[in-house]
Write a structure and sequence with these properties.
rod-shaped
C-alpha cells in the first residue's frame, strides 16, 4: 500500500482551493472598483457637485448669450437703434462731440 505524503495532500488541497480563491479575489476586486473607482458609488457625490457647478456656469453663459442677442438685434442694419449705434461708434472710434466734457475715472 502506498503512503500519502503530507506534501501531496497539501498540494491537492491547494489545487482544490485555487479556483474559489481566484473567484473570490476577482469578486473583491470588482466590488472595490464599483465602490471606490472613478465611476463608483463614492464618485457619485462628486458628479453631483460638478453638475451643479456646470449648471450655474451654463446659466451665466445663457444670460450673456441673451445680452449679446439683444445687442445684435439692436444693431440690425434694417432698423438699428440710434443710441446703440452712437455708443458703439464712440467706443470703437474714441470720438466725442465738441460740447461734451470727458471726466477721467483713473
Amino acid at each position: 500500500m502506498r503512503r500519502v505524503s503530507k506534501t501531496s495532500a497539501f498540494r491537492k488541497t491547494l489545487r482544490k482551493a485555487a479556483l474559489p480563491a481566484l473567484g473570490l479575489t476577482l469578486m473583491a476586486f470588482f466590488g472595490a472598483y464599483a465602490v471606490l473607482g472613478p465611476n463608483g458609488i463614492l464618485a457619485y457625490g462628486d458628479y453631483k457637485r460638478q453638475l451643479a457647478k456646470r449648471e450655474q456656469s451654463y446659466a451665466e453663459l445663457e444670460k450673456q448669450r441673451e445680452t449679446l442677442k439683444n445687442r445684435v438685434r439692436l444693431l440690425d442694419p434694417d432698423h438699428a437703434n440710434p443710441d446703440m449705434v452712437d455708443e458703439m461708434t464712440r467706443k470703437e472710434l474714441n470720438v466725442v462731440h465738441p460740447d461734451e466734457v470727458i471726466v477721467p475715472l483713473k
